[in-house]
């Protein structure tokens, strides 16, 4: 695996692009089952029926996203791909939403080390970032459904599920392109990226399954 100082991103190889599936495509296809499993574990939007459910859901995301994001940010290789973790962080949106709901984010425990995905090298962390970045997609649909079904006449804070507003698509495309460049230049690491994504999906699903008994019936 490349060290932070040796990782250099070069221009894409057109021949490799034509003859090999892009890493972003492989990730989508090879993590399809894990993605569906996480969706089932989160149970959105159906599992959220009251404002307390919504707060608990956000706390669950906070509890697992926060330590994963911190770990990804320790890999300085992100900067070589032009990926700013400060710009892409999802946790600040969770913190803002929770505080607007008068909930202290620190009131809910973070996932312990044994519940987190093992991300020993950058390639694995890049797979984890794929999962977190993917959470920005489709959130606006979830938000609309939640506002329609919650049994309270208020506009609930929705920064996390709103993704990044009008920048959601462009920032996702930027990340996808960086993934594909990495896959072209370091094809031997592609399998580790996929493993990292699978581990992250599994960790998030397990975390939600562990805590799903809090939801109202």
Model description:
The chain is an all-alpha fold and 217 residues long. The protein has a single domain, classed as Up-down Bundle (Heme Oxygenase, Chain A), CATH 1.20.910. The protein is built from eleven helices and no strands. The chain has helices at 14-19, 23-30, 32-42, 51-73, 77-80, 85-88, 91-100, 122-134, 139-149, 168-185, 190-211. The longest helix is centred in the first third of the chain and has 23 residues, at 51-73. Residues 1-6 and 9-19 have low confidence and may be disordered. InterPro entries: Haem_Oase-like (IPR016053), Haem_Oase-like_multi-hlx (IPR016084). Pfam families: Heme_oxygenase. This is Biliverdin-producing heme oxygenase.
Distance between the termini: 48 Å
Q: Summarize model confidence as the mean pLDDT.
A: 87
CATH superfamily: Heme oxygenase-like
CATH domain topology: Heme Oxygenase, Chain A
What labels describe this entry?
single chain; 217 residues; mainly alpha; Heme Oxygenase, Chain A; 11 helices; 60% helix; Biliverdin-producing heme oxygenase; heme oxygenase (decyclizing) activity; Haem_Oase-like_multi-hlx; Haem_Oase-like
């Amino acid at each position: 695996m490349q060290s932070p100082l040796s990782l250099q991103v070069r221009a894409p190889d057109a021949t490799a692009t034509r003859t090999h599936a892009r890493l972003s495509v492989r990730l989508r296809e090879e993590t399809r089952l894990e993605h569906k499993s996480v969706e089932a574990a989160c149970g959105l939007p159906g599992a959220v029926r009251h404002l307390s459910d919504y707060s608990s859901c956000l706390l669950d995301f906070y509890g697992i996203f926060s330590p994963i994001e911190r770990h990804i940010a320790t890999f300085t290789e992100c900067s070589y791909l032009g990926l700013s973790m400060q710009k892409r962080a999802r946790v600040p949106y969770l913190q803002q939403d929770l505080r607007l709901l008068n909930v202290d984010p620190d009131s809910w425990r973070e996932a312990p080390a044994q519940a987190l995905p093992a991300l020993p090298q950058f390639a694995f962390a890049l797979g984890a970032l794929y999962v977190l970045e993917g959470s920005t997609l489709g959130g606006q649909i979830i938000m609309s459904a939640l506002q329609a079904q919650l049994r309270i006449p208020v506009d609930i804070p929705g920064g996390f599920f709103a993704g990044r507003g009008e920048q959601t698509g462009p920032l996702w495309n930027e990340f996808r392109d960086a993934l594909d460049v990495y896959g072209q230049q370091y094809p031997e690491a592609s399998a580790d990226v996929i493993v990292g994504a699978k581990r992250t999906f599994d960790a998030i699903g397990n975390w939600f399954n562990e805590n799903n008994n809090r939801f109202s019936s």
